[in-house]
Write a structure and sequence with these properties.
The protein is of the alpha+beta class and 135 residues long. The protein folds into two domains: 97 residues, no CATH class; 29 residues, no CATH class. Helices cover 35% and strands 24% of the residues. It contains five helices and eight strands. A two-stranded antiparallel sheet has the order 1-2. A two-stranded antiparallel ribbon has the order 3-4. Strand 5 and strand 6 form a beta hairpin. It is globular and about 55 Å long. The two termini are 32 Å apart. The mean pLDDT is 87. Bound molecules: zinc ion. The site of zinc ion (ZN) has 3 residues, from loops.
């Protein structure tokens, strides 16, 4: 799985009605699954994972955290693309969310964190940005 010449490890997308029905059928046919554990309706997202990339992931050491499972980090990243908004009537709407930051390595190498979102990114790499609250 590649996009723009780069390997894509995983992708979260909103599922079509057909994909949701397929997943629900697969879950119901899973002999070990507890039917009570299947949300109704299921969240309308599907995560596609690059099997080769997944198998290459392992553990890495992160200074302030310790050993980190990259598979868990990948799943967390993809789930960050999901945004669930609950309205005043308690009805959920499911949306997709883009990355918090984007830029160019050469730009940052030359000018540093000159944009506010670069400064937030720099702070996040140092663990200085609090995790988002459940909204
Ligand atoms: Zn992403």
């Amino acid at each position: 799985m590649t996009a723009k010449g780069k390997t894509v490890l995983a992708k979260l997308k909103k599922a079509s009605e057909f994909e949701l029905a397929l997943v629900e059928t697969m879950m119901l046919n899973d002999k070990g699954a507890d039917p009570e554990s299947i949300p109704d309706p299921p969240p309308p997202y599907i995560m596609v994972v690059n099997n080769d990339g997944w198998l290459d992931l392992g553990e890495i050491m992160v200074d302030r955290v310790g050993k980190v499972d990259q598979c868990e980090a990948l799943v967390f990243h993809e789930l960050c693309h999901a945004r669930v908004e609950i309205n005043k009537e308690g009805i959920a709407s499911y949306k997709m969310r883009d990355h918090d930051f984007t830029g160019f390595f050469t730009e940052v190498a030359r000018y540093g964190a000159w944009l506010p979102h670069y400064q937030m990114t720099e702070a996040a790499f140092k663990g200085e940005v609090p995790p988002e609250d459940d909204e």
